[in-house]
Amino acid sequence: MSERGYGRIMAEQEPPTTYEKTIDALKLTGEILWTIVQIWVAIFQSIYAVFFPMEPKDVSGEIILISGTGHGMGREMALRFARLKATVVCVDINPKGNQETVDMIKQEKGKAFRYECDISDRAAVFALQQKVAQEVGSVTVLVNNAGIMPCRPFLETTEKEVRLMNEINVMGGIWMLQAFLPPMLARNHGHIVAMASMAGMVGSKNLVPYCGTKFAVRGIMQALAVELRQEEKDYSGIKMTTVCPYIVNTGLAHNPKIRFKDLMKPVEPSDAAEQIVNAMRRELVEITVPGDLWYSSYKFPQLLPARAVAILQDFTKTGVEPHAPNQFE
Ligand SMILES: NC(=O)c1ccc[n+]([C@@H]2O[C@H](COP(=O)([O-])OP(=O)(O)OC[C@H]3O[C@@H](n4cnc5c(N)ncnc54)[C@H](O)[C@@H]3O)[C@@H](O)[C@H]2O)c1
């Protein structure tokens, strides 16, 4: 558009009157005051919740689908949710380990179903959703847990490892969300739990691409929460919990390196699962496992300058040693 034409359109608009300007300024002042009030209410509510946490919610009527139930924390979460009388849908690429989990649940008279699926395969994930909806019912809780963690110096990490990590840890989680979220949205009822990691909060040696995948998991969960909140439709019935474990004794971290073992003990998978199920039932938005690392390893270092954080990291010397080569070939 020419400058003259633009000028003509501008000239056609009536300038706001003093009365209109005053009303706008009053509206904005009201909005700012209301926002400040809401922020303070939110701060007091969260302080109150530290001392008087919400009663854990009942999950007995829920259909809880967990990926990666053939081993580790996935299995332990499945056992715990089944004990709480939820119907558990166990999904894993490894049918043997997954069947063992289902058998363990059935031995305890729990309700469990087994499905084999590679969550990095989008078509397989959508087929899984259809099958589970027909055979079990509509999933109301999704636990995106399956993940892999090749540990190697960055430049030695193979193309296959980088691709697999991203396809399972990041894209697998996205496909599961795209498949299982719509029925939850339709009923405005559901809960998403995603397994990130402390390696998704702070960078770590020998885990460069893995850290990237776990930062991504946290980003996806945060962004999805914003998107659902800012939709016109009410999606307040969809809860989200992101879990950031430190080292859990499942064998995933083959060679953990910990300088102060008494202060930073690896967590047993059963303890980790207990904390995750508890956080989900209390509708916590994000947790570390163990919980005290939330302040000591995440919030407190955020207040420090980058150089100070680096000095602290080098002093604690906590991380993982590299894997044997070709583990994922
Ligand atoms: N163990 C730790 O120290 C630790 C720490 C932080 C975060 N995490 C995260 O927690 C989650 C669970 O870890 P874990 O230690 O219990 O793992 P694990 O290795 O004990 O179990 C992972 C399960 O996921 C399954 N799986 C792998 N790829 C799959 C795929 N493509 N499709 C379907 N299933 C697949 C495996 O067969 C296995 O049964 C992972 O996302 C991991 O990154 C683990």
From TrEMBL:
<dbReference type="GO" id="GO:0016020">
    <property type="term" value="C:membrane"/>
</dbReference>
<keyword id="KW-0560">Oxidoreductase</keyword>
<dbReference type="GO" id="GO:0052650">
    <property type="term" value="F:all-trans-retinol dehydrogenase (NADP+) activity"/>
</dbReference>
<keyword id="KW-0472">Membrane</keyword>
<dbReference type="InterPro" id="IPR036291">
    <property type="entry name" value="NAD(P)-bd_dom_sf"/>
</dbReference>
<dbReference type="GO" id="GO:0005811">
    <property type="term" value="C:lipid droplet"/>
</dbReference>
<protein>
    <recommendedName>
        <fullName>Short-chain dehydrogenase/reductase 3</fullName>
    </recommendedName>
</protein>
<comment type="similarity">
    <text>Belongs to the short-chain dehydrogenases/reductases (SDR) family.</text>
</comment>
<keyword id="KW-1133">Transmembrane helix</keyword>
<dbReference type="InterPro" id="IPR020904">
    <property type="entry name" value="Sc_DH/Rdtase_CS"/>
</dbReference>
<dbReference type="Pfam" id="PF00106">
    <property type="entry name" value="adh_short"/>
</dbReference>
<dbReference type="InterPro" id="IPR002347">
    <property type="entry name" value="SDR_fam"/>
</dbReference>
<keyword id="KW-0521">NADP</keyword>
<keyword id="KW-0443">Lipid metabolism</keyword>
<keyword id="KW-0812">Transmembrane</keyword>
<comment type="function">
    <text>Catalyzes the reduction of all-trans-retinal to all-trans-retinol in the presence of NADPH.</text>
</comment>
